[in-house]
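User: Could you check the structure of this?
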Amino acid sequence: MTGPRLRSVHVVVVGAGVAAVRLAERLAGHSRYAVTILGDEPCLPYNRALLPSALGSSRPAARLRFHAASWYRRNGINLRTGTAVIAIDRKSHRVVLADGNDVRYDVLVLALGAASTVPMVSGIRRLLARRCRVFTVRTAEDVRRLTAALHHARTVAVLGGGATGIALATGIALRGREVELVHSDAYLLDGVVDRTAANLIHTNLEKLGVRVRCGAPARSIVEGSAGVRLVCADGGLVVADMVVVACGARPRVRLAARAGLSIAEDGIAVTSELSVVDDPDIFAIGDCAAALGKGEALAAWEHADLLASALLGAPFERSPFLRTIRIHTGSLDLAVLGQPLAGTPVTLHDAARSTYKRLAVENNRLVGALLVGDTSEAGRLALALRRPWTPLFLRGVLFRYQDVEHRGLLPTETDLLCVCRSVSVAGFRAALDETSDWEEACRRTGAGTGCGTCRTAIERFASRYKTEHVA
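Assistant: Sure, the predicted structure tokens are below.
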């Protein structure tokens, strides 16, 4: 005689980005939990961090999706796309949908993501509301609309000289448009890279035909018959057929605020375990949470891992957050890992090859790396940032000694071989066990198909694994 079957704990996730999908991956196959993902976009979940790379695609969401629909069905994940949540009824443990229905939860996870920041530019909100001539890039639909609009534009102004702005300016220029990049700070990626790297990026953009204007933010925008006119703080004028806004992102917190949850300056207020401070049955992860590393795809991954481990009662070794920025568009190749401006710098600038490497060392540890022009060592450096290093290893990275291997840098099962596609060592190893071809393993897992800068590290790992496996 068997006892009564225990009811599964219903985990409802609001949002369908990297944090939501990673949490579903971790909980899949555990009968104790039933997972429902509620996404307001009509498409399958996709990697939002790679949207600039999908410029020109008529189906950006399909190109960047995490899994096929069959994966969710096979793993018992109830994925509901095109489903907007408009309210949270904390008393009855239900979320209210835009169509009037509701969904009951035992555990509610808010993975709401972020919305584009709109700069303080007179006239810009009116044009954004009209969806005419001024565009933001935060969703697959945004990319589709921007791609369509580019067919009718000759000149484009990009507001924002951060990673997204630079990637978009490069991608648009490569499609034959005249581009002017307007950045409010003194130099590109100010506070993220140093002047040497910024100057190399600036020069690279100019070689592509992008005009770069730094230190003079736009103050007003006016639409005319010939396009739009941007007036900058220094009195300068930028005239373009259309404007693309890439000025960062702000956490989406309106749903949480309406439910009476506490909102911090940078997102939903959470504890160290990512539960909201007002309700132990509600959690917030990813960009919407006021937690360490927010705004980074890898942080969303780690938030999901931490929460999944807590729900499953599994140990979770929380490592220091690793900041990552990748740009790999046309001739521009950039990787920022950790805190490259901290500590003592070790640099190598090869002006002839337009490459620059800066490694930051603090308390006998590598704490950051900045690579411009040659990012082939990004994979090994990502591992080195969480492990001991030796001077021999650093010299090998700087001078490209291909035979230099440091045993302390061999990846563990929980390391990410591919940050963009969130492919772990364990996941890639499983694919390698099914096929002897590392490129086929990449196709099956998606590893190396994002920015592409990790492919060298993946090939090395596959070669070493194949040798050890055969032996």
